[in-house]
Amino acid sequence: MSELLQVTERTTLKRAPRRGSFDRETIYRILDEAFVCHVGFTIDQRPVVIPTAYARVGDDLLIHGSTVSRMLITLAMEVDVCVTVTLIDGLVLARSAFDHSLNYRSVMIFGKAKVLIDRQEKLAALRAFTEQIIPRRWDEVRPPNVQELKATTVLVLPLQEVSAKIRTGAPIDNEQDYELDIWAGVIPLKLSVGEPIADERLKEGISIPPSVLNYK
Amino acid sequence: MSELLQVTERTTLKRAPRRGSFDRETIYRILDEAFVCHVGFTIDQRPVVIPTAYARVGDDLLIHGSTVSRMLITLAMEVDVCVTVTLIDGLVLARSAFDHSLNYRSVMIFGKAKVLIDRQEKLAALRAFTEQIIPRRWDEVRPPNVQELKATTVLVLPLQEVSAKIRTGAPIDNEQDYELDIWAGVIPLKLSVGEPIADERLKEGISIPPSVLNYK
Q1: How large a percentage of chain B has pLDDT more than 70?
Q2: Closest Cβ opposite residue B96 in set A48, A141, A188
Q3: Count: domains in chain A
Q4: In chain A, what is the straight-line distance between the N-terminal and C-terminal CA atoms, in Å?
Q5: CB B85 within 8 A of CB B34
């Protein structure tokens, strides 16, 4: 059975609480489907929101970047951070303009991140970033060398103060609006995959690997 | 000719400045393609990042929501806000794990938002929200009534302190890695549109309208 996370002041849904979820399994399913998050923190008391790739490993969210990145230097000081992950699932077209909406699944994580120091743990984290984006790719490529590991900061944010917010399904119109002669419904949206484009400098005779063939 | 926006301390790209753009046309093209942003602000000195729909109208970004939304109440106090819009365009698969990347286009907006008071301007804003998500839908649906307008707060954020960050194209490997027998290239990604799903309570004889038929 999946675990229910503790609700805190910050993760309490002030609006539309029926859309909230504190179920760990539900939250992890969203985090495992996406791979880009928006990281919010403050610099000089002012908010900054930066998109970046992430990986979920167990009960942690990992983010990484160059050791000289302003975001990573700031977060490494263990300041408060809010990380939000959003998947867009559809346009919800109601009979009234007012009741138009979006179907989406989002996760918000509050906390403070810590720098990963141990070299083996860092290497495992870098593997996780690659696998979050494209499973099985890691074993096909050249692994990071000592300089590359040194040039990378990995931050760990525990998945403790977390909530999901989800909207699914049909539009919800005012009862009297259902009588109007107006089309209503949902247009599903999905991040979809195009044909792989081989690098121009690809050596001859190299075929598309399993990670790319199986990517969906 | 397109206008170059002024670069400020906050919009200076600290990392990979070659990926930055301060060209208004480039920025607006990204804002017009997307419709969901991540809004960052602080509550009790701690960051919060919330996904929400937006519309671009001229040199303003508009966001809206219920008058009792905590986000809108907070932003209405003209606090600092950072709004980030991100489009994911592809997975960039290099020969080394380290040089894996994403193709994306993102826009960051810094500033303070103001509440829109005028009823005609509010109505025009609500139209813009609908049109940003699905062009031509507004004329097909029931427009907002007085109560609905009253229940909605619209905020205007001027597009003054804005920058774009863009990565496109092939992976960039270390020169010696091009000799490795490893496939490299790009997997294009795109938010794509599924078949519209009519509402179960749709009145008989109502066909799919032009806005939905032409949506892409």
Answers
A1: 97
A2: A141
A3: 1
A4: 28
A5: yes
B7 domain-assigned:
no
Q: Which residues of B touch A203 (CB under 8 A)?
A: 178-181
Which of A70, A171, A185 lies nearest to residue B196, judging by beta carbons?
A185
Element (H, E) at A156: strand A152-158
Alpha-carbon distances, residue A124 vs A63, A115, B177, B182 (angstroms): 13, 14, 22, 21
Residue at A50 is within a domain: yes
Is B177–A130 a contact, with Cβ atoms under 8 angstroms apart? no
Give the global pTM. 0.94
pLDDT tens digits, B10-56: 777 666 777 888 899 999 999 999 999 999 999 999 999 999 999 99
In a domain, B74, yes or no: yes
Chain B residue closest to A215 (CA)? Answer: B187
B49 token code pair: 């990042």
**Tell me, what CATH number does B160's domain have?**
2.30.110.10
- Residue-level pLDDT at B2: 66
Interface predicted TM-score (ipTM): 0.94
CA distance B22 to chain A (A): 17
**The two three-digit tokens of residue B183, written as one number:** 């496939």
Q: Which domain holds residue A122?
A: 17-213
Question: In a 3-state reduction of DSSP, which class is residue A59?
Answer: coil
Q: For residue A60, list its beta bridge partners.
A: A57, A158
Contacts with B18 (C-beta within 8 Å, 6 or more apart), sequence order: none
Alpha carbon of A49: minimum distance to chain B alpha carbons (Å): 6
Interchain CB distance below 8 Å, A95 and B142: yes
In a domain, B158, yes or no: yes
pLDDT single digits (tens) A165-190: 999 999 999 999 999 999 999 999 99
Query: Apex CA A49: angle with CA B58 and CA A102, to 5°?
Result: 65
For residue A4, pLDDT over 90 is answered with no
pLDDT digits over A25-57, tens only? 999 999 999 999 999 999 999 999 999 999 999
Instruction: Tell me the nearest-neighbour CA distance from B18 into chain A, angstroms.
Output: 15
A-facing residues of B in 93-112 (CB < 8 A) are 93-98, 100, 102, 104, 106, 108, 110
pLDDT, one tens digit per residue, over B120-170 is 999 999 999 999 999 999 999 999 999 999 999 999 999 999 999 999 999
CB contact under 8 A, B15 and A190: no
Are the C-beta atoms of A49 and A40 separated by less than 8 Å?
yes
Q: Give me B10's structure tokens.
A: 């906050």
pLDDT band, very low/low/confident/very high, at B4 (cuts 50, 70, 90)? confident
